[in-house]
């Protein structure tokens, strides 16, 4: 491959990325509020999970059908579940940013993340309600009786709570069980790709990975089976209802110029122009420019019609 070809390809890629960034920034300037609210709620969700850890009371592991069927991975192999979740998370993030590089531009990154964050926040809000309603003894090895991480000592100051000890506080949290946060992210990502992705084989693999993630969560004893089962139907229902309230994402294959978000100012300008045309007796269709004369409260289309009416009288 010649250096000239490489330089030309790199130049095209830079122009494509630059063009995409300018479009996304324009959308972001108008759609930033919901994005910011979604990101802030991620911190609130982490804060709530940190708070319930102070309330956690370790005890005997509850009887669980999944624990009877699936062997425990143990402390040494518990990383398998987290590794798969990391793969799911990074793969989805990279996919949402692929319009910056590839030609297959079916959506805008800003708009799809607004949608994803709306799904996540609605599901996490329900999750906070459930795990504060009833605290179950954690089944994970670090949440069992005798572990120094099973209980948190009372906080010495507000900063100790507000900093939430990320990411250690998330990995070694206890008490935030029903329902699984890992499954919320996994299912939201898979459902989103199911709707807006383009490769059927990848969609099938994504659902298989979601099932594997469910089994690994139970096998690693991060959650009870009920936490995973509730996540499956709750997240799907949340996505179904929230999706109906949100404006459908435009398909970029139709043409990018006509689907950029219209500002409120532009909408008001168009509305004023429409009202002006109607008040002047013109139709909303700009092609209809024939002069009209008003006579006895009625609009007459042309002069010949007026002459005929006067002859008849």
From TrEMBL:
Q: Which one GO biological process term can you cite for this protein?
A: ceramide biosynthetic process
Which PANTHER family does the annotation name? PHOSPHATIDYLINOSITOL:CERAMIDE INOSITOLPHOSPHOTRANSFERASE 1-RELATED, SPHINGOMYELIN SYNTHETASE
Q: What is its main location?
A: membrane
**This protein's UniProt keywords:** Lipid metabolism, Membrane, Sphingolipid metabolism, Transferase, Transmembrane, Transmembrane helix
Keyword Transferase recorded: yes
Bias regions of kind Basic and acidic residues — which residues?
298-313
Transmembrane residue ranges: 79-100, 112-132, 170-193, 200-218, 224-242
The question of whether Nuclease is a record keyword is answered with: no
InterPro entries, alphabetically? Sphingomyelin_synth-like, Sphingomyelin_synth-like_dom
> In its UniProt entry, what is this protein called?
Sphingomyelin synthase-like domain-containing protein
Question: Short name of one Pfam family for this protein?
Answer: PAP2_C
- Membrane topology for this entry? Multi-pass membrane protein
**Gene Ontology molecular functions:** ceramide cholinephosphotransferase activity; inositol phosphoceramide synthase activity; sphingomyelin synthase activity
Q: Which family does it belong to?
A: Belongs to the sphingomyelin synthase family.
**Ranges where the Sphingomyelin synthase-like domain occurs:** 173-241
């Amino acid at each position: 491959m010649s250096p000239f070809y490489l330089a030309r390809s790199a130049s095209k890629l830079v122009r494509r990325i630059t063009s995409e960034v300018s479009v996304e920034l324009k959308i972001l300037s108008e759609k930033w509020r919901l994005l910011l609210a979604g990101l802030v709620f991620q911190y609130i969700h982490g804060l709530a999970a940190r708070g319930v850890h102070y309330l956690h009371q370790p005890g005997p592991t509850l009887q669980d059908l999944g624990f009877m069927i699936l062997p425990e991975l143990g402390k040494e192999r518990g990383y398998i579940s987290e590794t798969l979740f990391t793969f799911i998370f990074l793969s989805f993030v990279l996919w949402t940013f692929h319009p910056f590089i590839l030609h297959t531009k079916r959506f805008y990154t800003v708009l799809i993340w607004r949608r994803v964050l709306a799904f996540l926040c609605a599901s996490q809000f329900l999750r906070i309600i459930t795990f504060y309603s009833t605290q179950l003894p954690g089944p994970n090895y670090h949440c069992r009786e005798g572990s120094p991480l099973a209980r948190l000592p009372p906080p010495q100051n507000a900063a100790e709570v507000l900093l939430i000890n990320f990411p250690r506080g998330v990995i070694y949290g206890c008490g935030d069980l029903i329902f699984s946060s890992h499954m919320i992210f996994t299912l939201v990502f898979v459902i989103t790709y199911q709707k807006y992705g383009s490769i059927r084989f990848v969609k099938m693999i994504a659902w298989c990975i979601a099932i594997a993630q469910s089994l690994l969560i139970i096998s690693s004893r991060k959650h009870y089976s009920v936490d995973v089962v509730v996540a499956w139907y709750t997240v799907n229902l949340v996505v179904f209802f929230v999706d109906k309230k949100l404006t459908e994402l435009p398909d970029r294959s139709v043409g990018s110029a006509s689907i950029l978000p219209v500002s409120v100012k532009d909408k008001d300008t168009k509305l004023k122009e429409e009202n002006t045309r109607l008040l002047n007796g013109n139709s909303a269709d700009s092609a209809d420019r024939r002069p009209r004369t008003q006579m006895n409260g009625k609009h007459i289309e042309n002069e010949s019609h007026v002459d005929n009416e006067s002859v008849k009288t």
